[in-house]
Amino acid sequence: MTGFEIGGASAADMEMIRAWADEEGWNPGDTDRFAFAVADPDGFLVGRLDGEPVACVSAVRYGTGFGFIGFYIARPHVRGQGYGIRLWKAGMSRLDGRLVGLDGVVEQQDNYRRSGFRPAWNNVRHEGVPRAGDDGGVRVVDAAGLPFSLLAAYDRRFFPEPRDAFLSAWTGLPGRTALAAVRDGRVEGLGVVRPCSGASRVGPLYAATPEVAAALLRRLAEHVPGGEIAVDVPDANPTATALLAALGLVPTFEAARMYTGAAPTVDLPGLYGVASLELG
After folding, report:
1. 142-175: per-residue pLDDT in tens?
2. What's the burial of 145, exposed, middle or buried (CB within 10 Å: 0-12/13-18/19+)?
3. 72, 34 in Cβ contact below 8 A?
């Protein structure tokens, strides 16, 4: 292990990590890194071998009791040599004492189990162009026109700790569209679509009913060239899975949501799509 060093990621490293994730076929958002950086500036680690970046991991702290692991990548030419596991241990050490979550790709799930993670559900990516339909009277507005406090309070129903800085950047970055469903002054749905290397990804997608989710998906797709979107849907919400199938989107990828302890209590029936497989 001589010559291997672990340090915090720079702005240039964040773009490199995005490129590595793209090579892995994860279809990261073009500008996700800007929101990631404000979520936890010290939460992104890079391992360098004789100065060459060869591995990365994110270990992001939320609030006082939750953390999320993501972007666990070792470059192909150094795999199996122990560099990745050293970086993994550094990331987990940063989250010591917290409940930790991750979204594990199929080939890594046994390794995560050995590290104490247990599956809660699968996030299954569905892709395609939503079938046209009637919005059923759902009122959809630009989320930027709503008080941010309403959006932050709504997000707390679906995530175990406050993440206001992340949410503000995530919904407001240039090139993205954030839409909300409102009724009688209440937020009843929220969706964000962002450009990616492949299909534009929608996340989060929250909705009080399938009709609200469908209206948001159709409207979000209108802001995407060709209308093709991708949504990471928790299979623990069968209503969401059935809706995506009814809209003509098909499964293309899956990752297991896993935790080191009991899964946190969130509004699963209203969770139609997670924000990010990398940060939760």
Report:
1. 999 999 999 999 999 999 999 999 999 999 999 9
2. exposed
3. no
